[in-house]
Structures are given as structure tokens and as C-alpha cells.
Amino acid sequence: MPPARRRQVAPVVRRLRGLPNPRFTGLGAGLFATATMLFFAFLDQLLFDGAPLVYGLLFLPVSAVTALWVRTADLVTAPIAVPIAFAVGALPIAGGTDGFGGQLMGLVTTLAMHAGWLYGGTLVAGVIASVRKVRQMGRRQLARDAAARGGPPGRGAAVRPPAPPTGRVPRAPRAPRTGADASRTARRA
After folding, report:
1. What pTM value is reported for the model?
2. Is the pLDDT of residue 129 over 80?
3. CB neighbours of 161 closer than 8 A, spacing ≥ 6?
4. Which of 32, 59, 84, 96 is the S-S candidate for 103 at Cβ 3.0 to 4.6 Å?
5. Measured distance CA(180)–CA(135) in Å, rounded
6. Are 29 and 66 in contact (CB under 8 A)?
7. Distances from the Cα of 40 to the Cαs of 5, 90, 163, in angstroms?
8. Beta bridge partners of 24
9. Residue 79 region, left (φ>0) first, then alpha (ψ -120 to 50), else beta?
């Protein structure tokens, strides 16, 4: 049998594979996005006097990284967590007046004026999460097909072995119901 040929991997792909690949739970992804956006908002306030453009530009990669680093089982949380992180992080750059009402009004105004960034980041997270989910479903289908063929994924078709016995004993048919039970069953049908 000839040795397996290895595909050449582009240097960019090799470099990307070397990056960290953590897997957050849904809650962890939300906390990561929120903490990162708060940090960026304070940094934006410090360096750029709270420029919403800088904050919005930084929100897009945070959305992408959050969607890439969330566990496969928690993919649905990524597009939910990133808008919450945007809103929480926008507090330092909102610029409301004194008091709770003024701060709230400033936050609502900031969210309304920069909804494009919010929608864009949510879209980025949603698309990445959807693509990851579709790829996961495809891998599962390949594994199911390979198991049905009796071999590893990607191999030629093999003869399918008979299904093993389940060990279940067939149940005897039930006796017909009478009385009040029969009328309740008839009403449900």
C-alpha cells in the first residue's frame, strides 16, 4: 500500500492553527464578550475620548472571536451574548448627564445612534455560529453514514452488518378498556 499523501497547508492556515482555541460555555462566552467590551470602552474613553467609531470597530472582532470560541453545544448563545456585551460596554462612552435617568438616556441614545455596529456585530456572530453548526451537522451525518457502512468516514462502501438484537421482549397486546377509562380514551381520540 503506498504511503498516504499529505496535503500542503498554507502558511497562513498553519499560523492560525497555532493560535489559542479555547471553548467557552454560553455563560463564559457572554462574560468574555462583556468584559472585553468594557475594557475596550474604558480604553476608548481614555485614548479617544469615547469615540463610538473606535468602539464599534472593536466590537466586530470581539463578536467574531466570541462566536468562534464558544462550545459547539452553546452556539446559540453567541448571537445573544454579543449585543448584551455591546450595551454593557457602551455605558462608559454613553456620556449621559448626572443621575440614573441621565445615564440611561445617554445609553439609549448611544445604542440608537450606533445600532449599525450593534447589528453588524450580531450578524457576524450569527453567521459564524450558523456556519459552525452546519459544519457540525455535516460531520455528524458523515459519521452516521460511515457507521452505517461499517467503516471510517471517507472510505468505500462496506457490507452493512445486521443490526444487533435489542434484548427487548415484545409486549403482549393490552386488553380493551372498559367503563370510565374507555370513555376518557374515546373523548381524547
Report:
1. 0.69
2. yes
3. 150
4. 96
5. 53
6. yes
7. 46, 9, 57
8. 70
9. alpha
Q: For residue 131, give the nearest of 91, 88, 78, 183 by alpha carbon.
A: 78
Cα distances from 21 to residues 42, 71, 82, in angstroms, run 26, 10, 19
- Asked whether the predicted pLDDT for residue 6 surpasses 80, the reply is no
- pLDDT, tens digit, for every residue of 72-128? 999 999 999 999 999 999 998 887 778 888 888 888 988 899 899 999 999 999 999
* pLDDT above 60: residue 161: no
What gap in Å lies between CA 110 and CA 104, rounded to an integer? 10
Contact 65, 116 (CB under 8 A): no
- Taking residue 114's Cβ as centre, other Cβ atoms within 10 Å add up to 19
| CA–CA dist 175, 172 (Å, integer) | 9
Every domain of the chain and the residues it spans = 23-73, 100-147
SS (H, E, C) 114-152: CHHHHHHHHHHHHHHHHHHHHHHHHHHHHHHHHHHHCCC
Residues in the chain: 189
Query: What's the confidence (pLDDT) of residue 125?
Result: 96
Coil/strand/helix, residue 42 = helix
What pLDDT score does 9 carry? Answer: 78
C-alpha cell at 37: 467590551
